[in-house]
């Protein structure tokens, strides 16, 4: 079986936290590739005013991963009509790639909120979850949550050792709006694209 990591997110914009997490998960879990899938219309972010279009977020992800042959980005969620849900994406990926085992990579924030997502049991049935520390989440609290989800859903979840990186797209958008530098927080070509298009000002 081929092993593929899935990084889902709004990527508004993509930053080095996403890229380092993908790289660490690939190494830690011996994944063959990581596929980035920008969300289409996310129910959870439907009230956010500053989400760029799917095409623009996809373009930033494409620029960020273009020099890494083990990383690619997929437009399957931004092409879907209506709200997009992770369970649908993972079920579609399984149907289309019967020879591949999928690892859904995410930060601790998602581990603690996943039961509020649509059909979490169908997500757990479709993949292994790889969760990483974020926002100072304690490993103890994460392990307790993992045990609970294993018990309740038979979920397959592992912890990816990860340093706590205080980097978020929200902070990057805010810094740009305030005219502060975001250099080094995202790849140079992504930053150049944001500046050229005058995004987030
Ligand atoms: P926003 O602030 O707009 O929500 P974000 O930085 O949280 O943006 P998302 O696109 O929401 O980025 O996140 C995509 C995925 O990447 C999620 O699983 C999230 O937990 C993870 N992630 C993002 N930043 C980090 C980080 N610094 N450390 C660990 N995981 C991260
Ligand atoms: Mg987020």
What is the structure about, briefly put?
This protein is an alpha/beta fold. It contains eight helices and six strands, in the order E-H-E-H-E-H-E-H-H-E-H-E-H-H. The chain has a six-stranded parallel beta sheet, sandwiched between helices.
What does this protein look like?
The protein has 201 residues and is an alpha/beta fold. Helix content is 41%, strand content 17%. It is built from eight helices and six strands, in the order βαβαβαβααβαβαα. Strands 3-2-1-4-5-6 form a six-stranded parallel beta sheet, with helices on both faces. It is globular, with a radius of gyration of 16 Å. The protein starts with a strand and ends with a helix. The model has no long low-confidence stretch (mean pLDDT 95).
Descriptive terms for the model:
single chain; 201 residues; alpha/beta; six-stranded parallel sheet; 41% helix; globular; binds adenosine-5'-triphosphate; binds magnesium ion
Q: How is the main sheet built?
A: 6 strands, parallel
Average pLDDT, all residues = 95
Taken in chain order, the helices and strands follow as EHEHEHEHHEHEHH
Mass-distribution shape: globular
Strand order of the largest sheet: 3-2-1-4-5-6
Radius of gyration: 16 Å
Reconstruct the topology from this structure.
Elements: E1 2-9, H1 16-28, E2 33-38, H2 54-65, E3 71-73, H3 86-96, E4 100-107, H4 108-113, H5 120-126, E5 128-132, H6 139-153, E6 157-160, H7 169-177, H8 188-197
Parallel strand pairs: 1-2, 1-4, 2-3, 4-5, 5-6
Helix pairs in contact: 2-8, 3-5
Bound molecules: adenosine-5'-triphosphate and magnesium ion.
């Amino acid at each position: 079986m081929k092993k593929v990591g899935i990084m889902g997110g709004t990527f508004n914009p993509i930053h080095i936290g996403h890229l380092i997490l993908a790289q660490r998960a690939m190494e830690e879990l011996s994944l063959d590739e990581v596929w980035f899938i920008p969300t289409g219309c996310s129910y959870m972010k439907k009230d956010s005013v500053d989400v760029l279009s799917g095409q623009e977020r996809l373009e930033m992800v494409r620029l960020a991963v273009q020099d890494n042959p083990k990383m690619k980005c997929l437009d399957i969620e931004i092409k879907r009509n209506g709200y997009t849900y992770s369970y649908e994406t993972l079920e579609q990926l399984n149907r289309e790639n019967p020879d591949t085992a999928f690892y859904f990579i995410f930060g601790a924030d998602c581990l603690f909120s996943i039961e509020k997502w649509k059909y979490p049991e169908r997500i757990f049935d479709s993949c292994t979850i790889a969760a990483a520390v974020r926002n100072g989440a304690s490993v103890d609290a994460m392990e307790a949550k993992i045990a609970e989800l294993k018990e309740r859903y038979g979920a397959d979840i592992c912890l990816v050792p990860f340093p706590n990186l205080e980097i978020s797209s929200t902070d990057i958008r805010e810094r740009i709006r305030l005219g502060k530098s975001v250099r080094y927080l995202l790849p140079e070509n992504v930053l150049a694209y944001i500046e050229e298009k005058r995004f987030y000002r």
